[in-house]
Amino acid sequence: MEFTTEKATAPRADAYDVVIVGGGASGLAAGVFVARYGLDAVIFDRGQSATCQCYTLENYLGFLGIDPAAFLELGRAHAQFEGCAVVDDMVSTVEGVDDGFRVETQDGKTVTTDSVIAASAYNADYLCDLDDGRFHDEGDHPVDCDEATGRTEIDGLYVAGWLSGGPHQVLISAGHGARVAKALVADRRAGEGYWEEVAAYWDWCVEDGTYGDDEWHRHVDEWFDGTVPDDCNEAFVEAVREEVKSERLAIQQTEAERRRRIERGKELLRWYLDER
Ligand SMILES: Cc1cc2nc3c(=O)[nH]c(=O)nc-3n(C[C@H](O)[C@H](O)[C@H](O)COP(=O)(O)OP(=O)(O)OC[C@H]3O[C@@H](n4cnc5c(N)ncnc54)[C@H](O)[C@@H]3O)c2cc1C
C-alpha cells in the first residue's frame, strides 16, 4: 500500500473540480469527502496550521493525546490516499472567470477550478479581488458565509473551518470541512438537475446484501416518488431513480472487502509509527 504524508511541490493539472485553500483539519476533511465523491481536487497548503498551536491535541475523539503535527500528517496521508492532491504552495489570489475561478499561487502556478473552499483559518486576503473587491476586505475575519454549509453569495465559493466564524476546535473544524464538502457536492448535483432530496450526498458503507431485494426497491421507490417535483421530465426522473439506486447499491461491501479496508487503516498507522 502506498502512503505519503509529504506534500507535492506542484499541482499535477491545470484545471480541477475543486481547489481547497488550506490543509488543516477542515481543508483535509473537505479533501477526503470531495475526492471520495470522485471530484478532482487539490489542496494548497503553506504556513503554520492553528492545529500546531495546540500543545497536545487531547479532545479529538479516539485520540487520548496526539502530537498535532502527527494528526496533520495522518490527515494528509488520508486525503492523498483518497486521490486529493496536497501541494506545498500558498494561494495568493482567487479571481472569478467564466464558470469558475482562476487561482494563482506564491510560486507562480495558475489553475482553474469550478469551486473553491477557503479553509485557511486566519487570513483570506486572496479573496479580495472577487466581485470587483466587493466580497471581501483585506484583513476581515471571518469570511461572510452561511455558517452551517459554508456557502457564500458567490456561486462555487465555500468557507470551511475557523475562517467561517463557527466554534473552532480541531474536531469541529474537521466536521465542518466534511459538511461544507457535502454542500458543495449537493450543489454540483443540483446543477445537473437533481432536486434537493436526491442531490444530497451520503458517504456511507453498509454490509453486502443490506440493499437490493424487492422490499428495498419498494421502500426506495416509495421515498423517491414522494420527492419528485412537479413538471419533471419523466425520462429524466427514471434516469435519476436508477442513479440513486445504483449509488446506494455501490456502498455495499463484502466481508472480505470490509476486512481489507480495515487492514488498510491499520497499515497506515503501522507505517506511520514505523516511519516516525
Ligand atoms: C493557541 C491555540 C491552542 C489551541 N488548542 C486547541 C486544542 O487543544 N484542541 C483543539 O481541538 N483545538 C485547539 N485550538 C483550535 C484549533 O487549532 C483550530 O480550531 C483548528 O486548527 C482550525 O482548523 P482549520 O482547518 O480551520 O485551520 P488550520 O488548521 O489553521 O488550517 C489552515 C491552513 O491553511 C494554511 N493557509 C493559510 N493561508 C493559506 C493560503 N493563502 N494558501 C495556502 N495555505 C494557507 C495555514 O498555514 C494552515 O495550514 C487551538 C488554537 C489555538 C490558536
TrEMBL record:
Coiled coil: none annotated. It comes from the Archaea. This is NAD(P)-binding Rossmann-like domain-containing protein. Gene3D superfamilies: FAD/NAD(P)-binding domain. The keyword Oxidoreductase applies. GO terms for molecular function: oxidoreductase activity. InterPro entries: FAD/NAD-bd_sf, Ferredoxin-NADP_redctase_2. Keywords: Flavoprotein, Oxidoreductase.
